[in-house]
Structures are given as C-alpha cells and as structure tokens.
Amino acid sequence: MSYGVRNTLILLIVLIAFIGAGWSYIYFYQLPKIEELEEKVEETQQELDKKQQIADAFPALQKQFEKAKSFFNNYNKALYGDSNEDIVYDFLNSVSVGSAYTDFTFSFDDSTTHGQYGVMNMSISGQGYYRNFVNFIRQLELSKPLNKITGISINPINELESYGKVNFNFKISSFYDRVKLLGEPNLAIENNLLGSVYNPFFPLIRSVKGNKNNLVNIEQSKLLAISGDQVFVLDQNGVMKKLSKGEEVYLGTLTSIDVNEGTATFNLNKGGIVEQVTLQINKDDEKQSGN
C-alpha cells in the first residue's frame, strides 16, 4: 500500500470517527435536552396562560373586593379583630361613661371557634343607677361590635343612700373575626343614650332620712308671724326661724304664704307620701292633706 493511500485511509477513518462522535452527541445528549427544554417551555407557557387569566380577572375581582369591603365597613355591626378578651374589656370601659356609667367586674369564661369566626364568652356583674345600667346595655347592643347579651339579672339596692341603684349581672358573647379578610373593623360607639328612664325597682314608699342638718320640722313648729313673703316660726328646738317662700324645711319646702288668712303652706315628702301641711297664726293644730 502506497504512502498516499495509507494517509487517505487514515483521514477517512478519523473523519468517520468525528462524524460518529458528533451524531452520538446530538442523538444521545442534545435531543433529550431539546425535548426537556420543549417540555419546560410548554409548562411555562401553560403557567403564563393561567397567570394571564388571573391578571385579566383582577380588575373585576378588585372591584368586587372593594364593594365587599365597603359593605363590611359600613355595616351596622362588626366583628372584633381577634380573640383577645382585653379588647372587649377596653370596649366595655369606653362605653361605661357619663349617663351609661356603672361599676362592673369582668371575668372571662371561655372561647369557641366556628369556621371563619369565633365567640368569646364572659360574665359581667356590678352596680349602678338603673338609668345608667339601661344606657350601658343599649350602648353594648347598638354599637358596632357584635355582642350578644343574655341572662340579665337585676336586684334593687334598698338602702336609704342608694335608692335608684341596682345590682346586676349578665352574660356577654362577643364575636370575633378569625380570617381578617377585609381588614380591621371599625368598633365605633353609637350614642343611643336615654335621658329619662322609668325605674320599676324604685320603691314608692321609702324610709325617711333623718334631720341631720337640723332643718325646721314643720310638724313640731308653731307659726308666729307673717311679713310679706316671709314667715317666722318657733321650731322644734324652741328657736325662732325666718323662712322665705321656696326655702327648704325638713322633708319639704315652704310653697305659699297667705297674709290675709295668716297661713303658710308647706309640701312634705315623707318617703314617697306627699303631704300638704298648713300652719296658721294663733292655731295650735295644723291642717293636713295627702296627695
């Protein structure tokens, strides 16, 4: 074999080796890579399509969310922000002011969950004027936070210095938001206070307070003289006192003076029993009439 043919055969073998190596590289390495990349491109395209659908739906969803949020914030009731009972206690304190003021104690009972909301259960007891207690309950029920009041018990305080006051206790269930989807609620207090409230527990007949200030006791006094819009009486202690129309006496006031008749009339409130007592000059006995 000549030198030229040998070299040609060597080059041909080398060329075939290069071609074989290149084909093997493409077939066994690059083709799987290409297929893998094509699969990734397809998956990425699908993910892109999904995100594009979400992006296309976002304006409508945003509008729906804002509408729901506006409805939530403007609704006449709202859930507490979380299950911390201190929030409820602080709200009760903020309600118990002015004509809704009461002295109360607060005890936490338990908390339960119900899906997207939960309930805190607490016991409240205390005392205060009946009108204030009614306003306290009205504020709790009519304000923004959602509170349910049950088991109200009221007992009057039958003591001379505490007429109009009552002891009370009740259960309160406060509802709170567990998901906070629409943000923090507005826990505003609605002012629904009543200026005048009839107290069914106020006794019609009450104990009569003692004459601590040593006021003129008309039933133990004698009318001595009348001068214009003033009268002079000898009181229960034997001391002459001057009284003007409208002036306070024990259990009442001087309401009228009749110079011509020589009389002075007093209205007395004897623990709910109203009497009109008239004293007359030179008369030892007074005339009485009950209303």
From TrEMBL:
| Gene Ontology BP term (one) | type IV pilus-dependent motility
Question: Coiled-coil ranges per the record?
Answer: none
What Gene3D superfamilies has UniProt attached to this entry?
Answer: 3.30.70.60
Report what the protein is called.
Tfp pilus assembly protein PilO
What organism is this sequence from? Fodinibius salinus
Task: Cite the source lineage.
Answer: Bacteria, Pseudomonadati, Balneolota, Balneolia, Balneolales
